[in-house]
Please model this.
Amino acid sequence: MTLDVDVLLLDETLSVGDDAFRQKAQEAMQQRMAASQAVVFVSHNSAQVQKVCKTAIWLERGEVRTAGPTATVAEQYQEFMRKLKSNASSAN
Model:
């Protein structure tokens, strides 16, 4: 099956389903990226986002918290999560 779309939207697809499904989704994404087509990859998996994306947007409650190079956005997100966990630990 070939998808003829302007924008490919993948929402957590690389972390669900069986191996064959994940492989198919990853191949579709890579083909479109290689052809400079638009791919929107949605994930909570920071490592996966860094592996496949050049640019990232961190959304929080429907608002853009930050956007830019993936490594920069991922580091800001990870720092936020570390602080959140630290605050939760100290509250207990």
Summary: The chain has a mean pLDDT of 84. The two ends are 52 Å apart (CA to CA).
